[in-house]
Amino acid sequence: MTVWMEEGKRYCAVLRVVSVLCTWDGVFLRTLFWLCLVKMPCCSAVRTTGFLIMQLNAFPKSLTRPLALPQVGRRPLRRLIRRLTPLLALALVLFGWQMVVLLEVYPAFIIPAPAAVLEKAVTVVGDGRLWLHASTTLAAVLSGLVVGVLAALVLGYAIAKSSLLDAVLSPLVVALQSTPVVAYAPLLIIWFGSGLTSKIVTGALIVFFPMLINTVVGIRGVPSDLRDLMRAMQATRWQTFIKLEVPAAMPVLLSGLKISATLAVIGAVVGEFVSANAGLGFLINLARSQYDTPLVIVAVLTLTVMARLLYGLASLVERRALAWQSRARRD
Amino acid sequence: MPARITVSDLAAVYQMPGGDTLPALGPVSFHIEAGSFVCILGPSGCGKSTLIRLLAGLQRPSRGQAFLNDQSIIQPSRRVGLMFQDANLMPWRTVLDNLVLPLEVAGVPKPERLAAARALLPALGLADFEGAYPGELSGGMAQRVALGRVLIQKPDALLLDEPFGALDAMTRERISLDLLEMWERQRQTVLMVTHDIHEAVLLADRVLVFSRRPGRIAADIRVSLPRPRRLEDTYGAAFGQIAGQVRAAISQA
Prior knowledge:
The complex is a heterodimer of chains A (331) and B (253).
Chain A: H1 2-22, H2 26-39, H3 43-57, H4 76-102, H5 114-126, H6 129-161, H7 163-178, H8 181-192, H9 196-220, H10 224-232, H11 237-274, H12 280-289, H13 293-321, H14 323-330
Helix pairs in contact in A: 3-4, 5-13, 6-7, 6-9, 6-11, 6-12, 8-9, 8-11, 9-11, 11-12, 11-13, 12-13
Chain B: E1 5-15, E2 21-32, E3 37-41, H1 48-56, E4 63-68, E5 71-72, E6 80-83, H2 95-99, H3 101-106, H4 110-124, H5 139-151, E7 157-161, H6 169-186, E8 189-193, H7 197-203, E9 206-210, E10 217-222, H8 237-252
Parallel strand pairs in B: 3-8, 3-9, 6-7, 7-8
Antiparallel strand pairs in B: 1-2, 1-4, 4-5, 9-10
């Protein structure tokens, strides 16, 4: 009964916040801004984070561009607003967050103040803990990515080329993919220990499937007319591979790499959740058990930034490698 | 050295799913003299493309044999240049890199193959486009690159499968004339599949008219118009007479 009442009270409080935000009265607005600016000592942090996110968004232009209408870009004011949009969105989230905290909807150990999170972030960056755990996770992510992608490339090529291998391996691969990685992650810990190896294996396994499918699709999608062309020129197998198959499959392979880059982070964290003595997944578990919610949030945000950076890097590689596509589209 | 092409009793039968067989071509027998330009005309699905694939060594015949000079064609050869209806360029390679591909595959050193490609560009009308990507080219220009890619390996015989079929009439006429001019200088043996009577009579020494599936030779018409031929020749009475003859043969086929 008391639980229900608690829930009800919280619900009312949330409604109050919503109504406050909806009553777009001048006095309220000024008060809210004042609360936000004075009571929230992390304004510079907001700005820095906003800037960082904008930098990240600059990697794949497509994320910010499709919204932009061609004629909008010409007016400087509108362009400024558009460039500030991600920042404003972030500020709005932080603002709402701060409001929830100020109205004491939830106790601090459930929703800590942005300032508390920032403070925690400064602490763990200062004492080197964040770097220790982040670098551990990053090592697992990168190794898992490399191992998974390479294995998928080799096996995917073989499957694409041989119908026998396709018949033998495809059911196994699909079965493996149908099983949630979280389910068999404990097995991997038993087999490979709670060190780096098991995280690399979980990461590699999670990356493997989408990359494999993309490899098979990419290689099978090489136009048969171009294969005939290579045959007519008496190209060797190696020449056909390196001059035709690799570049022709490259767009599909690179989109597979982009997906894999973010999946590898999931793989490594899943491994760390199950059993580890370092890494951001381990840190989240540890902080949760100590009710150190700010630290949980810091670790989660670090993972977000890590995954986003990897994705941005993969997009950058894609844009460089497929420069011919954008050239062609301009026509 | 232009090559002779001899086709003797050549036939192709396709296995259909369900065990049926579909006779696609022939049997046909004919001989093409070295250095002559022969066009094949015929209704759709009469096995013309199959014939080209057989002569290119991309496919094995169900019956009979084809010879390049006196050598039986059992696999692709670099002495034969092949061109399809689609330009079939590699979209990730520039015009220049597409042109040099056959030489690259054949292991010709880089400076040599680049020089050969650059020498070809003006005649193809692509002088300003060596750095362009296929996606930036018009259909006609892409087909010129494909033509250049065939010519760069200095083949003894050209097999052209409706090479200009996808182009508009104006582009088609211009590129046909360019082909004619280049052929008159080099005189490779050419076997070209086309749907266009006008084009066939303008280009060829001989027009082979194929019947419906399975394709056989329904008529073998000599085009005895003097060379070099120009576009103006197509308005002459002699041209019209031969074109009419071909037209009639197609109707009967």
